[in-house]
Design goal:
188 residues, alpha+beta, 2 domains, five-stranded antiparallel beta sheet, 5 helices, 37% helix, elongated
């Protein structure tokens, strides 16, 4: 199962949150990763000239990266000029608001004071469940047999609703002279 579209949606939700929260000046990119099953990498780069970026702490600007395989990271130069990647204190599928809450302290260079959060994106549970199923059952989860079973289940649910959307059990009770929860004409 190719999950790139799901990951791309997550990155887009984060981008929208950054704009809403007042961090719109980033150079934003999303790319299909080289990893398995449509992995994704998204990057946000704020130039050193961006008003909110502390030029002393971030002389080359600030780059925040999210990977569907590794979560949230940012890059920092050490005292020897070597680039190091550090992890943000949020889960891999953090709520976009949780990621944007880290930005003020990060942009100001207060790396030791980043607010941590365990808040998840609203669709994180579904995405993780889908990814787990994909790994467990392989990419052929949606083969012809699975599709046939899904169609059979949908047909059963339509049958259960009966004509006009009424529940079959209610219709049967009324037809057999029983009562229905629905009010009848004439107040009887």
């Amino acid at each position: 199962m190719d999950t790139f579209g799901i990951w791309e949606r997550y990155a887009s939700d984060v981008e929208q949150e950054f704009r809403r929260a007042g961090f719109p000046d980033a150079s934003y990119s999303v790319a299909r990763g080289e990893g398995p099953r449509g992995s994704c990498t998204a990057s946000w780069t704020w130039d050193v000239a961006t008003a909110l970026v502390n030029a002393h702490e971030w002389p080359s600007g600030l780059t925040l990266t999210w990977s569907s395989l590794g979560g949230w990271t940012y890059r920092v130069l050490d005292k020897h000029g070597q680039e190091n990647t550090l992890v943000l204190p949020v889960p891999p599928l953090a709520a976009p608001s949780a990621v944007s809450a880290v930005l003020p302290a990060l942009m100001d260079g207060r790396r030791g004071l980043l607010p941590s959060s365990q808040e998840l994106w609203e669709h994180a549970g579904i995405v993780e469940s889908s990814a787990t199923s994909s790994l467990r059952f392989g990419d052929d989860k949606y083969d012809e047999a699975f599709q046939a079973a899904e169609e059979e289940a949908e047909a059963f649910l339509r049958w259960q609703q009966g004509p006009g959307g009424a529940d079959v059990a209610e219709v049967s009770a009324v037809q057999e002279g029983g009562s229905s929860a629905a009010p009848q004409e004439g107040g009887k």
